[in-house]
Amino acid sequence: VENLQKHIRKQIGLAHEFEKLLLSDERFKIIHEVLMGLVCFRLKGSNELNETLLKRINGNGKIHLVPSKIRDMYFLRLAICSKFTESEDIQFSWQEVQSLANDVLAEGRPGN
Q: What cofactors are annotated for this protein (predicted)?
């Protein structure tokens, strides 16, 4: 039981680490309270913008996020469930999300 508790607490801590990174960037919005190892978020903007971001993230094959939609709001979900996930993986995932969000947002600007 102790090892299971330790594993769950670690996942929750890593999810909150990713949440803090999202909150540090005003372009992102947390959709729901972070529960267990699940972080639900989106770029502020249209569903299409978020769909494009997800396609880029999953398309480059470095990390994988899962889409969801509630009441016509499309958002992305980061699920932390591996016992091998470490803080470095969260930082890497955040860098990927941020970098690809930069690309998607830049492409949507006039003149691009």
A: pyridoxal 5'-phosphate
- Distances 53 to 25, 64, 82 between C-alpha atoms, Å: 16, 12, 24
Is 3.40.50.2300 the CATH number for 2-107? no
Residue appearing with tokens 């889409």? 67
**Model confidence, pTM:** 0.91
User: In the prediction, which pLDDT does 109 show?
Assistant: 62
Residue 110 has phi, psi (to 5 degrees) of -60, 140
What is the three-class DSSP state of 38? strand
